[in-house]
Specification:
The complex is a heterodimer. Chain A is built from 6 helices and 9 strands; from the N terminus they run H-H-H-H-H-E-H-E-E-E-E-E-E-E-E. Chain A is an alpha+beta fold. In chain A, a hairpin with a 4-residue loop joins strand 3 and strand 4. In chain B, helix 3 runs antiparallel to helix 4. The chains are: A alpha+beta, B mainly alpha. At the A-B interface, helix 1, helix 3 and helix 4 of A face helix 3, helix 4, helix 5, helix 6 and helix 8 of B.
């Protein structure tokens, strides 16, 4: 994303009002645009004043709780190296998108309900299905990740030989009001819809066949009912191993 | 550059400078310095997080996370890149926003509440004199913004909304919201004498 328009995002970014892949894009832009970084810093100093103006007195016992907690927490070392940001293709970029909409604590089997008929009855069926894919000679377990350390992940078991993959979700939160999660596979940048994902409670997995040439799997947030082509922010994605 | 640096420095209030010094001591594992830093920052962190998260129990959780994170990552702070207070508030705001953007939390919140509050960002009058002065100055400067600039900034910062959500709430095209947020903050920056 190199449109001149991107500079206008400094304000929204300083207010944490940019989400998903757009945020990742803008952060890459910031790494290369010194004047933008300077402006963001000044606007953040400004935004911090909004916090100072919101000052409220906290509950008195909070301090002791925090002081007790820090005694258990090891401090991080200072930054000594700077990791350069790589330029990425659109497909690669999809793999590093932010996943603020996901609130996934662990990789544990979780919570995707699918509106179509892909629901499995129980965890045993799930495990069997997973085992089948993973015991294929080219069976692989991938992680769908959002950017940032605390956004969680989702597992995908995939076998090109079997031409299918199995998605295992952790705590996939509900889509925002009026939105749905939609699953896509991308082949050479061309997206095909693989259905809507609706989180609820229960251990459910989602199987997708006919992978064809798909090289990327992605989940986006779309208007209710889904879209013919992805329009929303990709919330999670991963590159698939080549056939 | 020298000029700008000087202005930036002089614009910083004393507490901010204190925060920078304390944070550097905290980075070396100084628990007493952390206790002082806590006293300095807890008011704004708590007030801002509560405004965004709203649910009292969840707000407290986020505030605790934020304070512990300040302890944990104190060594990552570098004074050349801005003030310690800003660094802390940026971290706190990001955490609060992450919390409410987990979709479940978003569903629990009432959109209309956010919208109604947009016009009057300060419900409570702070007891502390310095906080009240700060509040007064920010209120005065917010009033120099156009209505759309002010509403956008308030919804984004205190409401924790993305600019896309702000666009929907205010029925305004996204390009306009982006510009209003930027122009609004720049006007606020100049009025507050941040740079």
């Amino acid at each position: 994303m190199t449109s001149p328009d991107i500079h206008a995002l400094t304000g929204a970014y300083a207010l944490d009002a940019v989400a998903g892949v757009e945020r990742a894009d803008f952060e890459r832009h910031l790494a290369e645009c010194e004047s933008c970084a300077q402006e963001v810093q000044e606007l953040r100093e400004t935004a911090a004043r909004l916090a100072l103006a919101a000052t409220e007195t906290p509950p008195p016992d909070l301090k002791n709780q925090v002081l007790a907690q820090i005694r258990e927490v090891r401090q991080l070392p200072p930054d000594t190296t700077v990791v350069p940001l790589r330029r990425r293709s659109v497909a690669q970029r999809l793999t590093t998108v932010a996943a603020a909409v996901f609130f996934v604590a662990t990789v544990g089997l979780g919570v995707v309900v699918v509106r179509q008929n892909n629901q499995l009855d129980n965890t045993r069926a799930q495990a069997t299905q997973l085992e089948q894919i993973l015991k294929a000679p080219d069976g692989e377990l991938l992680t769908l990740e959002g950017s940032g350390g605390d956004t969680g992940s989702m597992k995908v078991a995939v076998s090109r030989q079997q031409d299918k993959m199995l998605l295992l979700s952790g705590d996939l939160a509900s889509a925002p009001d009026g939105r749905d999660y939609q699953l896509w596979t991308l082949a050479g940048g061309k997206a095909s819809s693989r259905g809507l994902l609706e989180p609820a409670h229960g251990d459910i997995t989602y199987e997708v066949g006919d992978l064809g040439d798909a090289d990327v799997v992605a989940i986006t947030v779309e208007p209710d009912g889904g879209s013919p082509q992805p329009t929303g922010d990709p919330a999670m994605s991963a590159e698939l191993p080549t056939a | 550059m020298g000029d700008r640096a000087r202005r930036l420095r002089s614009a910083r209030t004393d507490p901010a400078n204190d925060a920078g010094e304390l944070l550097q001591r905290v980075a070396r594992g100084d628990e007493a310095a952390f206790a002082q830093l806590y006293d300095l920052l807890i008011g704004p962190v708590f007030g801002m997080v509560r405004r965004i998260v709203r649910d009292p129990a969840q707000s407290e959780e986020v505030v605790q996370e934020v304070m512990v994170e300040l302890w944990r990552s104190a060594a990552k702070f570098s004074p050349e890149r801005g003030s310690a207070t800003t660094w802390a508030m940026t971290l706190a705001h990001r955490r609060a926003v992450d919390r409410v953007r987990s979709a479940q939390a978003a569903a629990d919140r009432d959109d209309m509440v956010g919208r109604r509050d947009a016009g009057r960002p300060f419900d409570e009058v702070s007891e502390q004199v310095t906080a009240r002065l700060e509040q007064e100055q920010v209120r005065r400067c917010l009033n120099t913004l156009t209505d759309l600039q002010r509403e956008s900034v308030v919804l984004a910062y205190y409401g924790g909304r993305t600019y896309r959500e702000v666009g929907e709430l205010l029925s305004t095209p996204l390009g306009t919201i982006k510009t209003r947020l930027r122009d609004g903050l720049i006007r606020l920056r100049d009025c507050l004498g941040v740079a």
